[in-house]
Structure formats: C-alpha cells, structure tokens
Amino acid sequence: MSIYLAYYLAMGLLSGFIAGLLGVGGGLILVPLLVWLFSMQGFAHESNMLMALGTSLGVISITAISSVRAHHAHGAVNWNTVKHILPGILFGTLFGAWLASKLPNTFLHHFFIAFLFYAATQMLLNFKPKAHRNLPGYLGMSSVGSIIGIVSSWVGIGGGTLSIPFMLWCNVKLHQAIATSAAIGFPIAVAGALGYVFTGWSVSHLPAYSAGYVYLPAFATIASTSIFTAPIGARLAHRLPVNVLKRLFAALLYALGIKMLLG
InterPro entries, from UniProt (predicted)? Predict the structure, then answer.
C-alpha cells in the first residue's frame, strides 16, 4: 500500500499544479492515472472506471473550494448565473452518476477517451467561440446545466471545459467566465462524488476503504497535496509561457487518450 500512497501523493502534486497553472481541472489527468493504479492494485476491472470518476470528483470538490474563494474575493463570480444554472447542474450530475453505474464499462472508457481528444484539441487550438448572444433564461440555463452535469459526471471533471466556452459564446467576459465556471465546478464535483458514493454503496466487489465508488485512501491523499500546489501553479501562470505549456499539456492528453485506447 505504501508505494501506492506515494503515487497518490505525486498525482496530487501534479494535478493541483496543472489546475492552477492552466486553469483546467485535474480530472483529465487524475482519471486515466487512477484507472491505471487501480488496475495495478488488482481492483475489479468492471468498477475501475467508475471508481476513478467518483474519486476524481471527490478530489475536485475539495480543491475547488480555494479556487472559488479566490475568484469571489476578486468579485469575478457572477452568482446570478450560478443560481440559474445550479438546478440543472445538480440534476444532470446526479442523474449522470446514476446512469454511469448502469452503463457498460467500455462505454464510459471510450466516452472518456473521446472527451480527452476533444479537450486536447480545444487546448491546442486555444479555441474561444465568437460571442453571438446573451445568456439564456432560467429554463435554458437549467437545460445547459443538465448537459454539463451529465458529461462532467461521465469524465470526472468540474465542467470548465464545457461551461467556459458556453459562457464565452454568450458574451460573458473571459475572466468572469473562468471565475463563474470555478463556482459551478464545486457543486458539480460534490453532487457527482455523492452520486458515485450512493450508486456504489451496495456493490460487493469494491476494495476495502471505499465509500461507494470513491476510494478513500486515494481521495484523501491526492486532495491533501493538490491544495498546496494549485496556488504555486496559479502564481507561475503569470510568469511562464502559458500558451506553450497548454500545447504541451494537449500533447500529454493525446498521449493518455491513445494509451487508454490501446488498453
């Protein structure tokens, strides 16, 4: 177990640093690494993907707190947008976690790979959609929130890869879109993690020290280290060539996607 705890510590340091540096959630890195480590530990193959998703969302629910507080302190969060999208986010994330437990493991595996390629391409091209309209009303925001919640629960992320482009498309300024996305990511992560806890609670083949599909040793260890490196990454973001780093990170996501595709 000690060697795996060392791996989890390293994963926390890496995911926190990347989240702070590039403004993306660590889930894109955590999920494939957790799948690999869970396989190395001999956990049941049919539950590895679900456990990776649940554990990743659990970690994000902790690390998102400091990010939201920082953005709120700068007055950048549009809480009215958060209020309008929240019902859809909660419904979509909880429903997505429940549905994930009913779907074949291979579907989730390939869905995550496809999302990795999408996220890598978005980052490589530095894609920012042209603004065309304003944010929709309550019903429209709830509908969009449901979609973001479902997809986020299936890939173990806080949703920024989807919510930021949506808000930019709706004429929201970039800094406000990033801050509001961070605030939206917190309920996504909490609802998603709880969803995976409840749907896996009665599953018998899960390893010891699991709360449903959340593996507690990995959750606690990764979260405890990522909260220290995220601020370091955020400070370096103003000094390093972030566009170059984003391209390197995109290449890493492509490599992870290809590795998962090849098994």
Answer: TM_pro_TauE-like
Q: Write the DSSP string, the chain.
A: -HHHHHHHHHHHHHHHHHHHHHS--THHHHHHHHHHHHHHTT--HHHHHHHHHHHHHHHHHHHHHHHHHHHHHTT---HHHHHHHHHHHHHHHHHHHHHHHHS-HHHHHHHHHHHHHHHHHHHHTT--PPP-S----HHHHHHHHHHHHHHHHHHTS-SHHHHHHHHHHTT--HHHHHHHHHHHHHHHHHHHHHHHHHHTTT-TTSPTTEETTEEHHHHHHHHHHHHHHHHHHHHHTTTS-HHHHHHHHHHHHHHHHHHHHT-
Query: Does residue 212 contact residue 54 with C-beta atoms inside 8 Å?
Result: yes
Q: Nearest to residue 58, comparing CAs of 163, 177, 196?
A: 196
| pTM beyond cutoff 0.90 | no
HSE-CB for 22 with a 13 A CA cutoff: 28
Q: Which residue in 167, 123, 122 sits closest to 144, CA to CA?
A: 167
Tens of pLDDT, residues 186-243 = 899 999 999 999 999 988 889 999 999 999 999 999 998 888 887 777 677 667 776 7
* Nearest one of 241, 254, 85 to 166, comparing CA atoms: 85
Say how many C-beta atoms besides its own lie within 10 A of residue 104's C-beta.
10
Task: For residue range 21-42, list pLDDT tens digits in order.
Answer: 766 667 888 888 999 999 999 9
Sorted by where each begins, the domain ranges of the chain are: 2-261
